[in-house]
Amino acid sequence: MSKNNTIAIILPEIIHYFFSSILSGVEEIADKEGFNVLVFQSNENYKKEVKITETIINSRVAGVLASISKESDTYDHFQQVLDNDIQLVFYDRICTGIITDRVVVDDYAGAYKAVEHLIKTGAKRIAFYSSPLHLEISKNRRNGYLDALRKNNIEVDKSLIYVCDTRKNAIELTPKVLNREDPPDSFFAINDHTASGILHAVKKMGLNVPNDIEICGFSGGQMALACDPMLTTVEQHGYEVGKTAAKLIIDKINGKTEGQYTNRIVKTELMIRGTTKPLKD
């Protein structure tokens, strides 16, 4: 069976602004180059992700853009995509064990800038709500968080690092964290959904943001703007990630980069808004 002019994209969750903006970037480039886009959603489920790759292989698409689910810690199903002579590019959540092109945002630098900004506003005990630590984005953002503390001579308290990456879990966890004997004075969240949950919980406890508690997220987009006060966050530029990933996969399909492997990094931007204090003089 011959391959067609279709690119499949696997999204962990389409409801997230970051992933939907990636899809928009992919579709823009694909449309210009005469490719169709077939969209799959893993819903952060490993078994569903495996089934999707089986469907993709049987469909004989020309290429696959993939961001792994939070549950995925083995990646044989993606190797099978390559073994079936289908081009593969990872974006955002990548697999380092498979040799292929990748597009990521500068997670380390984004986290470092966010935490350093909190420190410059006077924060000293910064809690970090992370995704599962086997994910590369979690490792990189955690390292940015830790290095910002160390380079600003703030002692690392690993008890302030929690695996919590949804709004629902943040709403449940945050009151417990703030009721510690040694509570944090600020939070850095792995994404804006989590940050919005922190904000909801903090306000429900009668605390003022940012005077009592500061909050910084990571994603950008409408959710950050819809928060009250508006959320300080790290803008990931998902649309650029999508465009870059689409260009890479199309070049692979057309044989322009055969035998070459590229790791593209999209820079982040700190968007300072109302959930952090003004900088100290």
Could you explain the architecture of this structure?
- The protein is an alpha/beta fold and 281 residues long.
- It folds into two domains: 6-105 and 237-266, Rossmann fold; 107-235, Response regulator (Rossmann fold), CATH 3.40.50.2300.
- It has nine helices and twelve strands.
- It has helices at residues 17-32, 46-59, 76-83, 107-120, 136-151, 167-178, 192-204, 222-226, 238-253; strands spanning 6-11, 36-41, 63-66, 87-91, 101-105, 126-130, 161-163, 186-189, 214-216, 233-235, 263-266, 269-271.
- The strands form three sheets. Strands 2-1-3-4-5-11 form a six-stranded parallel beta sheet, with helices on both faces. It has a four-stranded parallel beta sheet with strand order 7-6-8-9, sandwiched between helices.
- Helix 4 (107-120) runs parallel beside helix 5 (136-151) and helix 6 (167-178) packs across helix 7.
- The protein is elongated and about 60 Å long.
